[in-house]
Design goal:
79% helix; mainly alpha; 2 domains; 236 residues
Length: 236
């Protein structure tokens, strides 16, 4: 009994399009399983046409649309949890042992610079903007060839997508922090507090602390890119 013929393999690729598989990794896992299971059936005497063979494997092994949706959700949760824990681990290392001393020196250096620059407000805003968006640019440069991989159809990589989400993690948190702080200050001043007033309230020390934390996060993010993230792409 012959295994799958070339036109049957092409048919499987075309048929998988109706399932709207989101990620490249999920697509290839399903595609490989489908071919292996169908070839196994052919080896054991199943001579049915490709449609019946495909649908049986898809329904029984994968679970059709619901099974694919669950598989994608499970993989998203697993990858996001793994990478976020890696970034958190490297971030916290910045406050332990010798790294803590480096972080303290970084804070002191930023604060000292803020005392000698002419445009202090511009210094902090530009620096914070660059550091907050730095991880986004970093992961794009590191992964630009993997943002979309050419398979049967162009699909985003789950690993790259997860890392992109982590790259802009600090941006909404920073916005929420500024907004909540302005609301809190408004309660005590009994009038609306502008964002400029928030910067004044934080002062050079507070802004230096925020910038230091953002840099340490970027450092942990970069370490994750060069270790756990890199290994996940290599095993993909």
């Amino acid at each position: 009994m012959e295994l799958l013929l070339p036109y049957e393999i092409d048919w499987v690729k075309h048929r998988l399009r109706i399932y709207h598989i989101k990620y490249d990794e999920v697509y290839h896992e399903i595609y490989d399983h489908m071919l292996s299971a169908m070839e196994y059936k052919r080896q054991h005497g199943d001579s049915r046409e490709i449609l019946s063979l495909f649908q049986e494997v898809m329904d029984e092994d994968i679970g059709s649309h619901q099974g694919i949706a669950k598989m994608q959700s499970d993989m998203e949760t697993s990858v996001n949890r793994y990478l976020s824990r890696a970034v958190k681990r490297f971030f916290l290392e910045g406050f332990r042992g010798r790294q803590a001393l480096w972080t303290l020196m970084l804070f002191a250096a930023i604060y000292a610079c803020s005392q000698v620059v002419v445009a202090q407000k511009a210094f902090f805003l530009i620096s914070l903007g660059a550091v907050l968006f730095g991880p986004v640019v970093h992961v794009i440069i590191k992964s630009w060839r993997r943002l979309y991989r050419l398979g049967d159809r162009r699909k985003p990589s789950l690993v790259v997508s997860s890392m992109l989400n982590l790259s802009n993690f600090l941006i909404p948190w920073f916005m929420v922090f500024v907004l909540n702080l302005s609301m809190l200050l408004s309660l005590f001043s009994k009038e609306e507090v502008s964002r400029d007033a928030v910067l004044v309230f934080l002062g050079p020390a507070g802004l230096s602390l925020l910038l230091t934390l953002a840099i340490v996060y970027w450092q942990g993010f970069a370490k994750t890119l060069n270790t756990d993230y890199k290994r996940m792409l290599q095993t993909d």
